[in-house]
Amino acid sequence: MATFTPEQLVEMPDDQLQYLSPEQLEQRDALFRQQQLEKQMRNSKDLLTEVKLPPDE
User: Fold this and answer.
1) pTM
2) Do 13 and 35 meet the contact criterion of CB atoms below 8 Å apart?
3) Helix H segments across 1-57?
4) Which pLDDT tens digit goes with each residue over 22-50?
5) Cβ neighbours of residue 48 closer than 8 Å, sequence gap 6 or more
C-alpha cells in the first residue's frame, strides 16, 4: 500500500484513483474541496481589490 503526500493525491490522474483505498479517496476529496475553497477565497479577495468602478460620466 503506497502512501502519498496530499499534493500527490490531489494531482493524481483519474485512471490511477482505482488503486487508492477508500480512506485515500476520502482524503483526496477533502483536500480537493479545501483547495477549491482557498482558490475561491483568493479569487474573491482579488476581485475585491481589483474592481474599480468606472467614474460616473
Assistant:
1) 0.56
2) no
3) 6-11, 22-50
4) 999 999 899 999 999 999 988 887 777 66
5) none
Q: How far apart are CA 45 and CA 43, in angstroms?
A: 5
Q: Provide the 10 A C-beta neighbour count for residue 28.
A: 19
The Cα–Cα gap between 56 and 39 comes to: 32
Gap between the Cα atoms of 40 and 46, Å rounded = 10
Instruction: List the grid coordinates of 40.
Output: 475561491
In the block, which residue shows the cell 483526496?
A: 28
Q: Which three cell numbers stand for residue 47?
A: 476581485
42 φ/ψ sector (left φ>0, alpha ψ -120 to 50, else beta)? alpha
Torsion of CA 47, 48, 49, 50, to 10 degrees: 40
